[in-house]
Amino acid sequence: MSERDSNRRLVAILRGITPAETEAVVEGLIEAGFDAIEIPLNSPTPFESIRLAAAVAARQGGPARLIGAGTVLSPDDVDRVRDNGGNLIVAPNVDRAVISRALDLGLTMMPGVMTPTEALAAIDAGARDLKIFPASLLGPAGIAAMLAVLPDGIRLYAVGGVGADDFAAYADAGVHGFSLGSSLFKPGHEPADVAANAVICMKAMRRIHGGG
To answer: Which of 87, 99, 195, 209 could form a disulfide with 125 if both were Cys (CB 3.0 to 4.6 A apart)?
Structure first.
């Protein structure tokens, strides 16, 4: 697996981040190798933070990055994310209207699922990247069992109660990637501390896929 592919397999969740924190934190994440960053909409003034994050990603150059929102619950919010430069939509649930709007706009869509029924409903709506949340309740064995009934080509991201030490077990079960929240960022953390956490996580991902 290429280093660039590793970078897309980890999604940073910046829940609670403020616009004042956004630029420095996002710069550190990108320097550590992260190419996917999610700012949940229950954060303070999230659309302003998304706009700032997208601007940082553009200034940093390099490949196209996934910058966008989590906890997206309505098609109107999908539009607002796109209008503020975002291209990633993450939802806690399976809402066909949200999935359809995101895909119609050419955005990367990642709905949240917990059961095979939810996963198959999301796939039927057009999603190909699924967020398993909370992953720790299913564990690697539960996720492997779910994957056995899903179509080929579906990418599962484990979210919730999963850190760098868990990557190998989940990857062996077929998980494509991980979204990282409190193990990576908490409001008020110094940007340097967030960047250090990001480096640890990225090295762990690359090790399990032969990238270093």
So the answer is: 99
